[in-house]
Amino acid sequence: MLFEFDSDQRLWQRTVRDAVSKECTAAFVRSVADAGADPARLWRTYRKLGWTELVDPTDAVELGIVLEELGHAVDPTPYLATMTQFAPLVPAAAGDGASGTAAYSGVAARADGAGWVLDGTARHVLDADRAERLAVVTDAGVFVVPAEAVTVVPLHVFDPLLHVADVTFAGVRVGEADRSGADPEHARNLALAGLAMTTVGACRRILDLTLEHVRGRHQFGAPIGSFQAVQHKAADMHVAIERARALAYFAMMTIAADDPRRRLAAAMAKASAGECQALVFRHGVQLFGAMGNTWENDLQFALKRAKAGELLLGGAAEHRAVIADIVGDGHAHQL
């Protein structure tokens, strides 16, 4: 497995980076958080650019490039949930530009005539309050449910740009036509890798803002970035990000190649991204000082997105346990 971008992927990275810098600006992100600006225009832009068409598993690396850049920009759209949670579970319905998300647990399906009835509550579902469709994982399979068929209760979360909600299914009827044949285990690998990529992007943003700050802030007649203690922390941040970034792209490559190591790689990526954000978060706040904790500083958006990436779908400790189980059982090359 060649572990570097080819010429087409490097061009794609430059193209995505340029588009994000023009369309998902820091000023627009702040307008969403401050004034409740509607990110629908930005979502339509992603659709026009073809970013919602990256639904084939072979496009995983290209999708990862988009997710990293959107994580860096602290994207306020439902792109992450749609492309890494809904699309892998319902590939036949994905790619049409409609937003979606996934409910992985909490919902049971019981047979009823020619179909099923869904009951239960899925908690902490990303973007459930603005998704047009939900992919619901049950013991009877994965079902596609329109948003209007469920009850959604938005939750207050610390990231002002992130949408999380509880979703209640009360006797929702679905038929065979609503059933997806996707493998939830394989789909979850992309969800984990996608969160890892987003977290890495947010951590990159924290480092970029921190470096800009320490180069411009002076103490004792010199920029604080010239102090050895500050340089050591910045170097540690860089190393942690590069390690997590490498593992996140490795996970994306295993998905693209249908490599049997994809489950292990996804768990490694999610664990490494969680550990990365812990260090980058701590050093970023310390190097910025008190001003880094203020609402007026854009650092807070990246800090919150990185922390949310750790908490969603299980933290580093949980995925380290998964890695230990896989390796300990000697199935690293079969699972």
Automatic annotation (TrEMBL):
Keywords: FAD, Flavoprotein, Oxidoreductase. Belongs to the acyl-CoA dehydrogenase family. Signal peptide: none annotated. Gene3D superfamilies: Acyl-CoA dehydrogenase/oxidase, N-terminal domain, Butyryl-CoA Dehydrogenase, subunit A, domain 2, Butyryl-CoA Dehydrogenase, subunit A, domain 3. The lineage of its organism: Bacteria, Bacillati, Actinomycetota, Actinomycetes, Kitasatosporales. PANTHER family: ACYL-COA DEHYDROGENASE, ACYL-COA DEHYDROGENASE FADE28. SUPFAM superfamilies: Acyl-CoA dehydrogenase C-terminal domain-like, Acyl-CoA dehydrogenase NM domain-like. It comes from the Bacteria. Pfam families: Acyl-CoA_dh_1. This is Acyl-CoA dehydrogenase family protein. Its cofactor is FAD. Residues 194-325 form the Acyl-CoA dehydrogenase/oxidase C-terminal domain.
